[in-house]
Design brief:
Layout lengths: L3 H6 L1 H17 L1 E5 L3 H13 L3 E6 L23 H12 L4 E6 L7 H5 L4 E4 L4 H14 L3 E7 L2 E7 L7 H4 L13 H20 L8 E6 L4 E6 L10 H7 L1
Parallel strand pairs: 1-2, 1-4, 2-3, 4-5
Antiparallel strand pairs: 5-6, 6-7, 7-8
Helix pairs in contact: 3-8
The structure holds zinc ion (ZN).
Amino acid sequence: MISDEERKRYHRQILMLGEAGQEKLKTARVLIAGAGGLGTVISTYLAAAGVGTLRIADCDVVEATNFNRQILHWIGDLGRRKTASVAEKLAALNPLILVEEITGKIDETNIDSIAGTCDIIVDAMDNFPTRYLLNRTALKRGIPFIHGAVRGLCGQATTVLPGKTPCLRCIFPGAPPPELFPIIGATCGVIGSVEATEAIKAITGLGEPLAGRLFIWDGLALCADSLAVERNPSCPDCGIRSKSDQ
Ligand SMILES: [Zn+2]
């Protein structure tokens, strides 16, 4: 049930979602993997929207080089765990939701417990090996995986629906070489907002998901596009499922 306090706080979105949609947000559990440039944007909007449980996973502490883009980490947070910094800000923004902190590096040994009973996994990582792990976990559990990545003034996003759409590995078979990439903070705002939008849509059933399409953002030319993407029947991560579906 939606309380009077919630009815007031979410009034402008209940106009669109209805109280039933708001209840879906309230009961949703979302894993946000990463509390950096993307994760701080995604978690801000999902907290503001009233997603009932946000589980934030990150292994880093706040550094001065984060401030150009990681909008929930402030000067007083230097040296703090990013998960603690984010949890504090989100609690101040919306005390009606639950924020769970998972501090540590995501790997093969802990991903199952980190994903827990989450309904959706949102990618706010900065590397493809961990993204592939999140992708495989979502495929195994049959839950949506919302991918986003940024570099400079450019970014991309897609929503993986297991068994229905290409997975991340179908679209990007190999990881790009690791690098210290340049990034303008506003790019994280664009792509993080796209990912938060997709999460809200996946929870409430609103609109058409960014499924089977790769959203491409080019802030240099200031243009956006979405490209059709296809499943790879021999994809190492979803190919077996692909055969069993036929
Ligand atoms: Zn695949």
